[in-house]
């Protein structure tokens, strides 16, 4: 949405804090930062890549391991250009674009926010004769017979704002064609306008007429750069799964309903990338093409909606934060027979995380016709051949990572665990299965070799099972704060009781009784409650593995 920069301050600052934390802790960096960045491209740092990997691995596990009606697939990013012609992307994968005549910034015309106010219209006439340039500013239009070039421009100012502010914007525009300051611009025509989308809400300047802009990145395959070598970076992962439908069907030995799952990069030359990673030009998708018997698409659409809502809960995004939008007929992609958008309450607004579309048999039909190769399914029971219908849950990896970060981010006033003083702690409350690092391991003191050796041994014990971190620098309280900010759910401290034996008998975190004097127990500290309890080192692998699965 192009809207005036006046977002709610609390949410704006929450987003700013998240962006800052992402850089500080190594979740997400701007791509090519030292060269000024590249708009719409992002790099995931050491923690970000773990978070993203956990997310993708869990999706993959849910789709291809925990159910036996979906098989995995990994298609190429570059495909024969005929794929994109048949799928409709060459002709229709576009957004209407408008350009601000003053700043040259481009926006999606269909995302403009209607505005009301007073529109001021200007014309400046420029003639060049015998090498001399003359300018005249005018009310309304000059008759064309007057000669020279005419530069029309208009400005919208909100109700109650002065004409002078419109003149100021117009003067900036005309300065670009060399209009000197002394040429008067105060003789415009003006009129009140309601709900117009012809002006840039950021500065009131006139926008160009909408132009259709194809979002695919064009490239050339091979050394000759001509029309015959053109193809595109895929704007979605789906098409490879459609064009390989027959091959996969033959090897998978599955009956309908069955699906193909894929995770991979997609590229869209978005007109206006924004909201951190939310709208990027390079991103990853997690998509299933689920093939079903004709006529059963609508019921599968409902099943997938419920399935996906439960999945978001399982990764730590509560049901209450997801809005299900039934996409109205007028807004649906032309091939869709029904679409739900699952939207999340981001700090910058409720926005799409995933689209679940009943695509009918559109894609298979298009590819069958264009390639001349049959893509029908032979139904053993009815002895009929037909094109299956497809239901497609299509989720964005990067948008879900962003939602996980927004959902996890919390600031709270707590008592320092050592000094007892009140302080603000920043904590990322990731669901343990999503957390980039599962446990931080700390020897209480770094100058006690026995503590360090035991801590290193605990690290070795856990490393084959999960990502852990080791830290011996600074006070234990500081080390806990650091892992809180990284979202690590467990802290494990090796202390003197570990070496000397438990001071008294107690029940371990796993429920096992621990005798007084028993060695090799450690402090287990929980990120969210900050509660501490003791557990035997031998019980750690089982306890943690269950907590993070
Ligand atoms: P939008 O309306 O936000 O542009 P879309 O409806 O075009 O999204 P789909 O084509 O349905 O998106 O793509 C499926 C998913 O891919 C989206 O739900 C989103 O999570 C992700 N996605 C699409 N475009 C982008 C992008 N530019 N940056 C990051 N993720 C994206």
Task: Give the tags.
5-stranded mixed sheet, 549 residues, 14 helices, single chain, disordered N terminus, binds adenosine-5'-triphosphate, 7-stranded mixed sheet, alpha+beta, globular
Structure notes:
By secondary structure, this protein is an alpha+beta fold. A 7-stranded mixed β-sheet has the order 3-13-14-20-17-16-15, with helices on both faces. A 5-stranded mixed β-sheet has the order 24-23-25-28-29, with helices on both faces. Strands 6, 7, 8 and 9 form a 4-stranded antiparallel β-sheet that branches. Mean pLDDT is 92; it is low at 1-9. Bound molecules: adenosine-5'-triphosphate.
Unreliable segments (pLDDT under 50, ≥5 consecutive)?
1-9
- Mean pLDDT across the residues is 92
**Beta-sheet strand percentage?**
25-35%
Let me know the largest β-sheet. Answer: 7 strands, mixed
Structural class: alpha+beta
CA(first)-CA(last) distance: 39 Å
Question: Whole-number radius of gyration?
Answer: 30 Å
Strand order of the largest sheet: 3-13-14-20-17-16-15
List the helices and strands and how they pair.
Blueprint: H1 9-25, E1 28-30, E2 42-44, H2 46-65, E3 70-72, H3 81-86, H4 89-92, E4 94-99, E5 106-108, E6 115-129, E7 132-139, E8 149-157, H5 163-175, E9 189-196, E10 211-214, E11 218-220, E12 230-232, H6 238-243, H7 245-252, E13 258-267, E14 282-292, H8 297-314, E15 322-326, E16 338-346, E17 349-360, H9 362-371, E18 377-379, E19 384-386, E20 389-396, H10 397-408, E21 409-415, E22 422-428, E23 439-443, H11 449-462, E24 468-470, H12 476-486, E25 490-494, H13 496-500, E26 506-507, E27 513-514, E28 521-526, E29 532-536, H14 540-548
Parallel strand pairs: 3-13, 23-24, 23-25
Antiparallel strand pairs: 1-2, 4-5, 4-10, 6-7, 6-8, 6-9, 11-12, 13-14, 14-20, 15-16, 16-17, 17-20, 18-19, 21-22, 25-28, 26-27, 28-29
Helix pairs in contact: 2-10
The structure holds adenosine-5'-triphosphate.
């Amino acid at each position: 949405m192009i809207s005036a920069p006046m977002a709610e301050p609390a949410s704006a600052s929450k987003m700013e804090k998240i962006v800052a934390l992402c850089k500080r802790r190594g979740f997400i960096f701007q791509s090519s930062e030292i060269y000024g960045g590249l708009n719409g491209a992002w790099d995931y740092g050491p923690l970000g890549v773990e978070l993203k990997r956990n997310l993708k691995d869990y999706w993959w596990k849910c789709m291809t391991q925990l159910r036996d009606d979906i098989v995995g697939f990994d298609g190429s990013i570059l495909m024969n250009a005929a794929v994109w012609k048949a799928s409709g992307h060459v002709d229709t994968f576009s957004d209407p674009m408008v350009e601000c005549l003053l700043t040259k910034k481009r926006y999606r015309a269909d995302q403009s926010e209607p505005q009301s106010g007073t529109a001021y219209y200007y014309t400046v006439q420029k003639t060049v004769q015998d090498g001399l340039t003359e300018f005249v500013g005018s009310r309304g239009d000059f008759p064309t017979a007057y000669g020279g070039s005419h530069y029309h421009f208009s400005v919208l100012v909100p109700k109650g704002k002065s004409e002078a502010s419109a003149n100021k914007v117009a003067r900036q525009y005309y300065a670009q064609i060399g209009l000197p300051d002394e040429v008067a611009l105060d003789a415009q025509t003006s009129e009140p306008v309601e709900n117009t989308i012809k002006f840039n809400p950021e500065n009131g300047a006139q926008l160009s007429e909408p132009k259709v802009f194809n979002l695919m990145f064009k490239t050339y395959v091979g050394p000759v750069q001509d029309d015959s070598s053109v193809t595109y970076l895929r704007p979605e992962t789906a098409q490879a799964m459609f064009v390989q439908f027959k091959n996969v069907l033959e090897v998978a030995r599955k009956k309908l309903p069955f699906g193909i799952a894929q995770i991979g990069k997609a590229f869209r030359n978005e007109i206006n990338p924004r909201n951190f990673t939310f709208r990027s030009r390079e991103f990853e998708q997690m998509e299933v093409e689920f093939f079903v018997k004709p006529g059963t698409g609508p019921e599968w659409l409902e099943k997938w909606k419920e399935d996906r809502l439960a999945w978001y809960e399982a990764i730590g995004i509560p049901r209450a934060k997801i809005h299900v939008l039934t996409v109205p007929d007028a807004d649906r992609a032309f091939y869709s027979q029904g679409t739900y958008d699952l939207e999340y309450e981001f700090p910058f607004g409720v926005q799409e995380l995933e689209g679940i579309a009943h695509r009918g048999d559109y894609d298979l039909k298009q590819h069958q016709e264009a390639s001349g190769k049959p893509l029908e399914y032979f139904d053993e029971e009815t002895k009929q051949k037909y094109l299956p219908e497809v239901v497609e849950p299509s989720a964005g990896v990067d948008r879900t990572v962003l939602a996980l970060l927004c959902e996890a981010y919390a600031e709270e006033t707590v008592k320092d665990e050592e000094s007892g003083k009140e302080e603000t702690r920043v904590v990322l409350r990731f669901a343990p299965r999503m957390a980039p690092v599962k446990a931080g391991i700390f020897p209480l003191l770094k100058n006690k070799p026995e503590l360090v050796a035991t801590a290193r041994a605990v690290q070795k014990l856990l490393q084959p099972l999960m990502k852990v971190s080791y830290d011996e620098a600074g006070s234990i309280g500081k080390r806990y704060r650091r892992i809180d900010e990284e979202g690590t759910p467990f802290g494990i401290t090796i202390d003197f009781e570990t070496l000397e034996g438990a001071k008294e008998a107690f029940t371990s975190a796993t429920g096992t009784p621990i005798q007084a004097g028993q060695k090799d127990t450690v402090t287990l500290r929980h990120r969210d409650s900050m509660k501490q309890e003791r557990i035997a080192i031998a019980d750690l692998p089982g306890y943690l593995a269950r907590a993070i699965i």
